[in-house]
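pasting for ref
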Amino acid sequence: MYDVKNYSAQSLQDEICDIYDALGRPTGRTCLRHAPMAAGDFQLGATVWICNDKNEFLMQKRAKSKKIYPERWAAHGGVALAGERSADAAVREVREELGLFLDAEKLEFLGRLMVQEHGLNDYYFYRTDVDLSTLTLQQKEVEAVCWMSFDEILLHHRNEELLPFMPELPLLAKSIGFFRRDSWQKSPMFELHI
């Protein structure tokens, strides 16, 4: 219904994406990234959480010029382009936004969740140590980067300094053994409102 060749309201500079059904199967149709989606149609996104040996996560502060949630902290990722696997989208987005090259074969798949009204998002975990001074930030996307502990991520989430929709946080906590800590159940920091 919203095939790219039939949708003229958007600029052709917009990203072309595959359309998926609710089960994550490609429909064989494409759309522009920002085109309205029909009921039951979804776009695929990917998010990668980069973790160092201290179990700190590489976070990016979204640029002030971003139309949606400027100056909020987030992990790394974006929409998968037409014909692109979500793992490849995650690697591409990190390369574009940070100048950091990841090996798609080393991404650990955490899960797929439905996000917002027409989004399916695949979440990945990637362990590497990176010197922040070696990163090349894409100025129109990223204002700053830093390493954060999981507790700091939860604090920023609670203070509304992260993207407001982060349903992957329990998956992420499990990947670093957060649920095995004795204190997490007593911690008010783990009151996620997602």
